[in-house]
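can u do me a favor
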């Protein structure tokens, strides 16, 4: 028997090679059933939600925006250069919250062997709360260290393992504002930005074709900040490194 198709309303029925029936509906779901002589045949069904997610993932370019909350843990190593080899270590741990925006590209959309590869470009801004430590033992004067904000720009190459799950790495730069002050005598109060190299790993789970949930770990190593106090024998070299864990909720256009 010859193959053929008959359109019935919004459903297309196709007799393939005289034995299999392919069913294609308007919502994009496709199923296949065997002939009446094959009792073990079944229909493969794709839900409308899954079909929309797959269609969205196939787009060449997808802008997105999101909000995030996380745990920001920064290790500060303070080297007091005029006091022998004194190195003090401090933990600046706080909650981060902010927003991000970017664009995701499917650069190999038309190359089947590489069509699951993704490339994202993203910028973000975060505020850090409660990331402060005071070293009373080092005083007087008592130094107070704070981390206040993060700004970043990154590339996010990734791989789409399934229609719902993507894994990615982050490579980029982060600019963070650190405060260093003496709250007792007020002799000094510095605020400096330091640039850091950032790298990390993350995963994105598509809840729908537009809404995604993201989990991520990042590491940032910052350039050294140097301080010299007029009339003081205490000069410092401050070295910061941050481990951050982020949970994000994003909207993909």
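np, heres the sequence
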């Amino acid at each position: 028997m010859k193959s053929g198709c008959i359109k019935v309303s919004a459903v297309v029925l196709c007799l393939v090679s005289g034995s299999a029936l392919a069913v294609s509906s308007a919502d994009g779901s496709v199923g296949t059933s065997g002939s009446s002589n094959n009792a073990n045949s079944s229909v493969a069904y794709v839900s409308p939600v899954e079909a929309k997610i797959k269609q969205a993932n196939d787009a060449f370019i997808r802008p997105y925006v999101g909000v995030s909350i996380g745990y920001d843990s920064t290790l500060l190593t303070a080297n007091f250069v005029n006091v022998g080899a004194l190195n003090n270590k401090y933990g600046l741990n706080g909650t981060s919250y902010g927003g991000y925006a970017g664009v995701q590209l499917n650069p190999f959309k038309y190359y089947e062997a590489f069509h699951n590869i993704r490339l994202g470009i993203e910028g973000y801004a975060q505020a850090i709360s409660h990331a402060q430590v005071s070293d009373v033992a080092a005083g007087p004067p008592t130094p107070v260290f704070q981390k206040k904000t993060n700004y970043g720009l990154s590339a996010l190459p990734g791989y789409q393992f399934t229609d719902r799950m993507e894994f990615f790495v982050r490579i980029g730069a982060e600019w963070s504002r650190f405060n260093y002050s003496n709250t007792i005598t007020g002799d000094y109060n510095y605020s400096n930005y330091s640039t850091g190299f950032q790298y990390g790993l993350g995963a994105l789970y598509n809840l729908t074709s537009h809404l995604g949930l993201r989990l991520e770990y990042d590491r940032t190593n910052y350039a050294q900040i140097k301080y010299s106090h007029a009339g003081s024998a205490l000069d410092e070299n401050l070295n910061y490194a941050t481990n951050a864990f982020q949970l994000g909720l994003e909207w993909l256009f």
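The helical segments are 48-57. hope that helps!!
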